[in-house]
Records
---
Amino acid sequence: MNKQLELNGTRSTAFAKSFSGFWASSLIVRTDLLRQIGGYSADISFVEDRDLHFRLSLVTSIAYVNKQLIQTDRNPSPPGSTCRPWDKVEVQFRQQQHMYEKWLRMGPELLPDIRRIIRRNLGALHSHWANWYLENARYDEARQAVSNAVRYKTTFRTTVKWALTWLAPAFASKISPKTRPYRDWRSCVVNFDPGLTATQARGMSPANLSAESKSPLLKEHDCVS
């Protein structure tokens, strides 16, 4: 059964907020639209599917097919393997940062509300950078990252983190959240389908995700938090 996303002109807002909830291998799109947006970005090798989906949402509506279309192997890489460099946290963060900064350089097609969302996401990402640097005792880089976080997303928590990182980085490293891998796709599934609990999502396989999902609507969720 086909369902049109009821985003009422705000579909790009939903895609800007979080991972789009579907895999590129299940996407069907007109060739002329792909050419119009320039296809995949050659300079983005991680989250390139999210980048493509967001840019597509700026030029066309998006429909959701509530049935299984693909089966995806999400098993981790073998120990010592280098076939998936994007499994490294620093690669994930660097690519996401580049994607957000590239979006912010867009012209008038990027509405002010969407631009604010992207800035907040970029601020949150810099905060994650700071956590990772603190975790690895790279305090000078942590200070730079947390300063960028405050620049893009000024909140009480980021301000407190900024002060602690500059004045007592060793203490800040003890209380900051530990970095978790982005590739835990189940954290995105709960967000994609509001009817699923975290426990239910962990018990699902990629093969039955799209078949069991009840809602295509996207909610705000940062899978790198």
---
Amino acid sequence: MDDGTTNAPSCLENDGTTGETNSLTLLNPCCTIGGASPAIAFKESSTAGAASLCASGVGVVATFFNDEALAGSGIWQLTFPDHTFFGCYSLAYYPNLCHFGLGWEYVYDANDGAGGVYFYDFGLKVFLYTNPSDFPFLYDYSSLHWLWYYYGTSRYFYEFGGRGLFFSAPG
């Protein structure tokens, strides 16, 4: 619906349908975003018992982001069930993700049953893999080594079996 404003839309429980026929159930709470591109973000789950997926006006995002929460103004934050903080990021250009520490990452859902995700890291110019249980470890497919991401350090990594501690400019 377009009312011609930049106001955030409203989320009304049990008010209308998407017009689609599927086995998905929208879960509360719904999040809304105002501004130049007003949007509704919501969690959905399959009545068939599949893992929940998140949509934010850009289609379904990788299951890696299942526990994300809207921090406000289109900024999301993610803390995994083990209380590991992934960080804050924007999905405005998804599948390009702008992470406030890692920088720009291109996201591919690993579809591995572990909530895994592949990132193409524009700073390192490599493909990385992680999942909610492994993060802040990231597997680097170019060096074939695991990296440890030092969250809050702006791009310091430790490469196990390789170059040790190093800094990479964001992409």
---
Amino acid sequence: MNLQTVLAMPISMERLITAPFAESVMREQPQMKLRVYEGINNAIAQFRAGQQVDTSGLLPQIVEQLTPELLTPGNAKVARTDDEVSPVDAAAKVAAGTRVLITDGTADSNIPVSTMSSLASALTSAGTTGPELKVLTGVNHLLHMPGTQDNDPVLAPSVVAALKAWAQPFATTG
């Protein structure tokens, strides 16, 4: 498996966990590439089977990424439920003519921008209008700028601007 294969994978647990490491592993430790992919796939298979996830042999940065997603009991149920839904499959079922805006921030470590093309393609194939991907510089997964509290109700200015531009054709005055 190579970087192009990983980035061409549909959005899935494997891709979301693997993508952030694929480029850095290839750059820093190319000889570790296959081991990294195999280790991630084994950990995800163990998780899906309801088994204890064995992290021995995984790079520390991968264990760090897996821990909040798969290794924390409080998140396990949510992660398994989320894993049952394919955003690409769901996007393919969106009604034709539905207006769509896709946003992703360059500081989003949960869903890297590089993983969004399959979602945009599925929405295009479904006949939605748009779908336009707005890449938001410096914005994280919660639509905030880094350093903003997670529960802060104020969105990053670039998020507000993207939403306003998307909604503008439907705005009414008076």
---
Amino acid sequence: MATLRTTITALRVSGSHENITRTLQRELHASQRPFAPRVRAAILNTPAYGPKHTGLRVRIAKCVQTWVVIRGDLVSAGVEVDASRMPSGQKALPLYLDGAKAPWRHPLFGNRDRWYSQASHPYFARAVEMYGPFGGRAVQRAADAITAAFDQQAG
């Protein structure tokens, strides 16, 4: 069974680094596919009360993205809510909604005379926890496939 470190070292020695790195990136992106829709659905399904809604959950769901980084020995893949894509003044709201930051207070529908303490609704960990082992297995499959392709080229 190949490890990513072994595979990366073999890539450097072989000179076919770019093609196989692209393959590894493609496999890692594929392993990330189930995460983003699951996180978006969890965000959109957090409870909302009252007759009026501001669209906050939709804005946060649009910020979900997956990523893959391969730099030297570093191989990393993940899913995140990229708060930098939120409108100005709302960049901390994904963390508040998930409960990573303390509950926050805000004017009730813009009425500065009425302030509301917003409860958090953790969404992120619950949405991805069941995929943890699958992600690791997908990475291992990608490393094995690339190593097999490398061995076939070398042999």
